[in-house]
Design brief:
The chain is α+β, with helices and mostly antiparallel strands. The protein has 10 helices and 10 strands.
Amino acid sequence: MIGTFAIGFLRIGWIDIVDVLLVTVLFYQLYKLLTGSVALKIFLGLMSVYLFYLVVKAAGMELLTSILGQFMSVGVLAGIILFQQEIRRFLLNVGKATALDRVRVFPWRREEPTRMSVTPFVEAAKSLAGKNIGALIAFTMASDLKFYANSGDNIDAVVSKRLIMSIFNKTSPLHDGAVIIANNRIQAARCILPVSENPDVPASMGLRHRAAIGLTEVTDSVVLVVSEETGQISLVRGGEVFRNLAPADLRARLNEMLYDVKPKTSSSTTGTEKTVAA
């Protein structure tokens, strides 16, 4: 066969090499996806059970093989249930890489979206942090956050510093929860976000940070957090937390994360903590 060569008693073709490389890349991406989460330990446990099943099957232990075989027969369904968050994150990454909205079939008909100013968020976060008032603001990217917006109160208002501060005022009935930004407007307030169950999240992070991490684990959104306890300002994306941001750093990182605008000078962020591997 053309394109094959022998190594000892093995005959290897170029298709075999490509096959091995693709499997290697697949396992590497799987490792990156699961590292830092409980899912990695579950996956290793399932692999251990499967290897044990192969050993007892090869040894001819019929009773044990039958029991483990029944367990392995539902392995795909069990895997979907156990790894639903990781599967969703993987499909989200694939979807972002192949998003149809990036393909300009009719470029003359496509209108560039108006870029939202980040100034109201920077100024509001600075004022809230100075008063030790907590805040949680989620910016919609490619993932639709309508499900989480429906858990709160619809607002559909123009973004402004005063409105943001009014929402998160401790006497406001809307302060407990997250604000969701979509289409350059404040879509909803008092929204409930999924809380991260990652055991590697530091204990110093409160419920707001865990909710921000939880949302970015299942969507591609960017979340702004102001800590009520410390007054620190943080940004979260993809499970990665950028903590203790100064207003200038917050502005630079918001522009970079939302609009891919690189800062002209290096950021002076004092602390960065990656809680979940991307």
